[in-house]
UniProtKB/TrEMBL annotation, chain A:
CDD domains: HAD_PPase. GO terms for molecular function: inorganic diphosphate phosphatase activity; metal ion binding; phosphatase activity. PANTHER family: 4-NITROPHENYLPHOSPHATASE-RELATED (PTHR19288), PHOSPHOLYSINE PHOSPHOHISTIDINE INORGANIC PYROPHOSPHATE PHOSPHATASE (PTHR19288:SF44). Phosphatase that hydrolyzes imidodiphosphate, 3-phosphohistidine and 6-phospholysine. Has broad substrate specificity and can also hydrolyze inorganic diphosphate, but with lower efficiency. This is Phospholysine phosphohistidine inorganic pyrophosphate phosphatase. It is found in: Cytoplasm; Nucleus. Its EC number is 3.6.1.1. It catalyses: diphosphate + H2O = 2 phosphate + H(+). Belongs to the HAD-like hydrolase superfamily. Keywords: Cytoplasm, Hydrolase, Magnesium, Metal-binding, Nucleus. GO terms for cellular component: cytosol; nucleus. Its cofactor is Mg(2+).
Automatic annotation (TrEMBL), chain B:
The lineage of its organism: Eukaryota, Metazoa, Chordata, Craniata, Vertebrata. InterPro entries: HAD-like_sf (IPR036412), HAD-SF_hydro_IIA (IPR006357), HAD_sf (IPR023214), LHPP/HDHD2 (IPR006355), STAS_dom (IPR002645). Keywords: Magnesium, Metal-binding. SUPFAM superfamilies: HAD-like. This is Haloacid dehalogenase-like hydrolase domain-containing protein 2. Pfam families: Hydrolase_6, Hydrolase_like. Belongs to the HAD-like hydrolase superfamily. GO terms for cellular component: cytoplasm.
Length: 271, 259
């Protein structure tokens, strides 16, 4: 009988999807810091026969800048392996002929260069951090409240993330704020949207049960992946909190100390 | 329909109903005087959190309204009594002008977060500070959860969206002390010696003024001034007892039909 629980399920895995912030590194001053053991862990995965992709809700920088930062931290990673919400959002906007008012971090704006932003008929919010000023939020609010058919796209729905100097509010908080103000529901682009996970699986050419997601966000990484039929493992780095192990709705397939431990456990099953 | 007892009190919203910023809604001073000549108690109830009772009073007097300080009941008053009751030391995210209503409350080493309408405090840094306190166990008290309010330049975000955001971030529920909470209305009526079904509320916010009052057992009259938008009367169940143009028409209705 096939061992379908963690870590036994690793025997039949064909691909691994890694969250980035909180798994590979922790953000903070400058480039942030690599989490001990993670650089080595990624190398080991790449040397194995498993397919590897990176899936992030990072929206403070373009993929190019973001990947360059990770390379500076020592990671072997390229843009084509990284899936982030902004390009996915651009595709959705173009598909539906939408013109966005953007409330995003300055560093993300280049991702939207090819999008018509005149006369906006929707709002896109990302992790704008200190640019989530009352004034900027009010501007986004007035665009929405003035539309007959207001649409709000949120790049992720995270509640908070960890930086080196503590926990900080994430885009989901401001998504909820605008939802409440305008009495509407936002469309989430990025984790945990099933469309987003599916696009990664499609790129890998894999079925959900052949892939495993490793992340620090129980609901958006692990829960989101499980919802699509993948296995999900939580690391105790990044935004992890002990109460996550007693969550009312999401139960990770496994909980490990960090990425290094997860990768060792996976590879041990495959000898 | 069961007979209503005679009307004994009228609760009147301020911002958007009697005035919009520094301009009185046309005809309200006269209407207010006529209401006072009838034998009903009048109270001015407001979720406005930017102003202390004293500055509210000054503004109303500048607009030639005949009002006394003891007739004003604000959600700040409601918040203060909750803090005193529970002996919390608050981080007060309220406008400077409203701090006066919290004089005497110890704010050192805060162990509670109080949020009012405070655009100056709704920046990323301050909200992060509040977030971390709540995550550590500090209760979140919302003076009210208005979605938006009317400024001269259009609609602007109220505290509600930020309270909702913090609730989501921390997985905690705020204690709301302002409209449309039932206790706000019953507290406002408590020293008038009448029960909710002997009172009527007049306001421009369908959910917070009229809906809240009707849930507390009062009658509600919705006026089409201030933040009112077409169709608001259809957003509450049961619908308003009456929807009319503005405060003077509401008073006419009361004088003709409810006394």
């Amino acid at each position: 009988m096939a061992d379908t629980g963690w870590p036994g399920c690793s025997k039949s895995l064909k691909g691994v999807i890694l969250d980035m912030c909180g798994v590979l590194y922790e953000s903070g001053e400058g480039d942030g810091v690599a989490i001990p053991g993670s650089v080595e862990a990624v190398k080991k995965l790449k040397a194995s026969d498993l397919q590897l992709r990176f899936c992030t809700n990072e929206t403070q920088a373009t993929r190019e800048k973001f990947v360059a930062k990770l390379q500076r931290l020592g990671f072997d990673i390229s843009v084509s392996e990284v899936f982030s919400p902004a390009p996915a959002a651009v595709a959705v906007l173009k598909e539906r002929a939408l013109r966005p008012h953007l409330l995003v971090y300055d560093g993300l704006l280049p991702e939207f260069d090819s999008v018509d932003k005149t006369n906006p008929n929707c709002v896109v919010i990302g992790d704008a951090a200190e640019q989530f000023s009352y004034q900027n939020l009010n501007k986004a609010f007035s665009v929405l409240i003035g539309l007959d058919n207001p649409m709000l796209f949120s790049l992720g729905q995270g509640r908070y993330y960890k930086e080196t100097d503590g926990l900080k509010l994430d885009v989901g908080v401001y998504m909820k704020a605008l939802e409440y103000a305008c009495d509407l529901k936002a469309e989430v682009v990025g984790k945990p949207s099933p469309t987003f996970f599916q696009s990664v699986l499609n790129d890998m050419g894999l079925q959900p049960h052949e892939a495993l997601m490793i992340g620090d966000d129980l609901v958006n990484d692990v829960g989101g992946a499980q919802h699509c039929g993948m296995k999900g493992v939580q690391v105790r780095t990044g935004k992890y909190r002990p109460t996550d192990e007693r969550h009312s709705t999401v139960m990770a397939d496994g909980t490990v100390d960090n990425l290094a431990q997860a990768v060792d456990m996976i590879l041990n099953q495959r000898h | 329909m069961a007979g209503r007892r005679t009307l004994k009190a009228v609760l009147i919203d301020l911002s958007g109903t009697l005035h919009i910023e520094d301009t009185a809604v046309p005809g309200v001073q006269d209407a207010l005087n006529r209401l006072r000549q009838a034998s009903v108690a009048v109270k001015f109830v407001t979720n406005t959190t930017k102003e202390s009772k004293r500055s509210l009073l000054e503004r109303l007097q500048r607009l030639n309204f005949d009002v006394q300080e003891k007739e004003i009941f604000t959600s700040l008053s409601a918040a203060r009594s909750l803090l005193e009751q529970k002996q919390h030391r608050p981080l007060l995210l309220v406008e400077d002008s409203a701090l006066e209503d919290f004089t005497g409350i110890d704010t050192s080493e805060p162990n509670a977060v109080v949020i009012g309408l405070a655009p100056n405090h709704f920046n990323y840094q301050t909200l992060n500070k509040a977030f971390r306190m709540i995550l550590d166990g500090a209760p979140l008290i919302a003076i009210h959860k208005a979605r938006y309010y009317k400024r001269k330049d259009g609609l602007a975000l109220g505290p509600g969206p930020f309270v909702t955001g913090l609730e989501y971030a921390t997985d905690c529920k705020a204690t709301v002390v302002g409209k449309p909470e039932q206790t706000f209305f019953t507290q406002a009526l408590s020293d008038l010696g009448c029960s909710p079904n002997e009172a009527v509320m007049i306001g421009d916010d369908a959910r917070d003024d009229v809906g809240g009052a009707q849930n507390a057992g009062m009658m509600g009259i919705l006026v089409r001034t201030g933040k009112y938008r077409e169709g608001d009367e259809n957003k509450i169940n049961p619908p308003p007892h009456l929807t009319c143009e503005s405060f003077p028409e509401a008073v006419e209705h009361i004088l003709k039909n409810l006394l």
